[in-house]
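Reopening: structure tokens for the zinc ion complex, inputs below.
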Amino acid sequence: MTPLHYRIEPAEPAAHRFHVALTIQHPDPAGQWLTLPAWIPGSYLVRDFARNVLTLVAESGGEPVQVDQVDKDCWRAAPATGPLTVLMEVHAFDTSVRTAYLDSERGFFNATSLCLRVAGQEHVPCTVDLMAPDANAVTGRWRVATSMRPVEAEPWGFGRYGCEHYDDLIDHPVEMGEFEIVEFVAGGRPHAFAMTGAGRFDADALAADVARICDAQVALFGELPCDRYLFLNNVTADGYGGLEHRYSSALASPRRAMPAPGGSGRSDDYVNFLGLVSHEYFHLWNVRRLMPAAVANSSLTAPAYFDDLWAYEGITSYYDDLGLLRAGVIDAPRYLDLLAKQMTRLERNPGRYRQSLAESSRLAWTKFYQQDASAPNAIVSYYNKGALVACALDLTLRRETDGACSLDDVMRTLWARYGRAMKPIPDAAIEQIAGEVSGLDLTDFFDAMIRTAGEVPLPELLADFGVTASVRPATGPEDTGGRPGSDSTGPRCWTGLSVKGQRQPRLTTVVDDSPAQQAGLAAGDRLVALDFEEATPGVIRVLEQRRAPGETVDVHAIRGDRLLHRQLSLAPPQDNTWTLRMDTGADEAVAHRRLAWLGASVAQVSEAG
Ligand code: ZN
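Re-run output (same inputs, fresh job):
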């Protein structure tokens, strides 16, 4: 028997309740302290998992033991002479990949939601019995998908699993239910998808594409530090997200993103999904083994503050799409469209002038993770700007060292120095290593990019790599950047009215200095009429295509229970949408740089037009 043993049972699917029993062989003789984490690594929001604990009691030798809840996520059991067993009922009805869920169709959990941390025994091994549900209480034939190590369990089976310590336990999410398994090999090791709710899709195409992407990321670091890897993917109508772990990741994705059987080509939705897969897989190195010290040393009871989140999420966001290009699942023009979309997102985000990347990183807890309608004017995303700064850093290193050094070299050095031994990384270590590996003084670069709010000088850098960046107005609400469709005609004017819904559409955001803001409109207002015509998204679009800058429009809107009447003065269309094209006339040195960065040959340039 291990010192700690958890028994987890999907006991009441209809009521969404797990029953959990924890047996502590040697409880603290002075009384045992127990806690649940307030947050889960990889998601920087205090979620207070303990609020879903419905009951908690304890017993020892068949006798009840007094337990007092001390604060929102901490308990103390009275002294016991023998093994102590703690029994909990936990409510689980959140479909997020960060929490726990149970109904008659499926169960899912992170141990942060179900498994108590035993004070003083954080580093001892534990076993976990995953119990099968009552077959009459669930639909289908349930199996188990987890990267946890089996002790007494068949592959994909209920039974006994084992973990090295508490931090290991909370790093293996568990899916229970009916799912499809897609297996493949990457980096010479077994990999698999457990697909829940995917319907019909082309499993062979998916396995082939993902294997190539994983191989491309393994090639960057030169080694795969795990003997197996599992993607848990819960497919729904419109889910999207992921949470990274060392041996697995938990994904949520939309059904339309699955490759269609017999389909040809890779749809934009499918490429987005491959980008998510690439992103979470890259995290098995960057953030799960290359670990920020603030997270590695956290007890998960209070927020961990650090300024480098941009490096963990931004660098990963740069390499996710680049990994698709390196794997050959997209070509260089399509990669440049994805990069242009990142540039467009930042261009439309006035908050970049108010918040630096270091601030965005440190305040993720209260700002990025708790966004309201003012977010585009107030904050900048450490994913979005972080990815563009990672790209700018890569291009700067390549250009200034004549190709001798790239961001790849910085990542490999970080890996050798910190990641391989999972040594926690202090803030700004990446800046220091980038300078050391390249021999460049990057102080001004990092001060400007990380600690100062403002622009990323990518257009200038891209020109030195034979890529022309041009900015233009959006052709419509669906235009998020990249090469525009051939039939698209742009608007003649700008209203600043971004809306959701058809009848009385609601203003979603009102960006700074837009005609909508100058007219006194606010996010949340419901548009009633434009020039006395009922307001719909279609009417806004026609108005922007037919009217001219300088003209005014009568706007009626409802805020709360009041009808507002405002005059909106139309502005010229905003140049806020980037397109990137490979420059056909690039000289030899420039073409050589581009080839080293994108692997893009002259042939691809002429194909792309
Ligand atoms: Zn991420």
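The first strand starts at residue 4 and ends at 12. The longest helix spans residues 203-221. Marking as resolved unless the reporter disagrees.
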